[in-house]
Input
Amino acid sequence: MRTEGLLSALLVLAILLAAVLVVTATPPPSTPYIIHGNVFYKNGTACKNPTVSITNVNNSNEWTAKTSASYNYYELTLANGTDLNVSEVLQFYVTSPDGEQSKVLNHAVTETEVNNGGLFNFNITLEAPPGTPFIIYGWVNYNNGIACNGSTVNITNKNTSMHWHAETNASYNYYQLILDATNVSAGDVLEFNVSDGTQSNTTNHSVTQSEINNGGLFNFNLTLPTPAEAPVVESITVTPDESAAEEGVQINPIPGANKTVNISAVVSDPNGWDDINTVVAVITGPYTVADSPVTLNLVSHDTKTAIFNGTFNMSFYYANGTYTVNVTATDMSNLTGSNSTTFDYQTAIALELDTNIINFSSNGPINPGEMREVLGDENMSTLNNATIRNIGNVIIDVYVSGTNMTSNGNVIANNNIGVRIDNIPGEQNYYDMSVERFFDVNMPAGELSLENVDFKLFVPYGTPQGDYSGTITLTAVQS
Output
């Protein structure tokens, strides 16, 4: 056996064996370590297109994850054993697209993650940077566009129940509230409650990310219902005006009767004519007007204006002077508007005699040399007994005059005719009608201001037979 050949074979085998051992000691290829997740703002809304930087604190390698402008998802693929190893620390630095919000956090790689192939659904929530203001401001108006100055504006974050009172001013309709950005997040619902002390209104607003990014909610105007406005009595017309030449309205009494006076009022209401509930006139003056107050009734209308008419009576004995007509309109909200005008009730001097015949021969013919009386009373229904009545509105006295009595050319002189009124104390005698006589009776104005009038006739001796007649005139004068 040749030993040289055997040695050669053995050497070859040793070389081959060494080669095998070298191959076995080569390390296996790296396995992927995938990191992915989503980025949110603190209120839970998506932070789209964030910037996610990841640094291996142990080896200082740094990477930027893939993101998208349309999503809040991020992803990064690393190599286990090359880029990182178990227990090494990955530091995440995440910022919002505008760079206003950011967050830094560390994560230690675990063996389980390496075995599973990565760090999955590692979500990150940003927080608003401290000290960043969030400003809310706007104006408060009524529905009709009129500014509501000095309103009260309360704002509540319904997601956190935080509550604030906005700044307002009695001279302006502007309101403002300055918050810290940590008080408000995108998606939070802000409740605005505004009041003018009488009316209120509530408005909700959902905060957007754009508002967070811009630093506030600007020009957020609030509206209150248009307040109920009182009606306006624009004009009042009183008729009849019986003296156009004189300033103002002049009304003449009707002696012994009532004078009907008309009122016409033009009333407007900003809330519409049908908001006018009642229109009432109150008449005041030197004498109490029995018909006051007077309800005025609707005659016609347009959108916001209506005409109301009514009447009342002025009795003949109401005192003369200036009377005021005050018209008040009340709407459905019990708001009122008033206006007034006046009229002058003129003086009436008048009397009424309940009969137009004094018959001295009612009890039979009168003989010459005989005297006959016809006594009066204070009863306007006994027509053969003379009664006078004050049918004006001032205190009156009476003048009485009489003519001669004649019959077929024969005369009984008027000095044979006597008159007396009210049996005036100290003046019990008749006054003959030879001249006009004044009677200071001071008859007051009033519905039943009555006095008796007595008449006496003496037929002189030698008076021819006949039917004699004459005239007696009673004239009222202001006392």
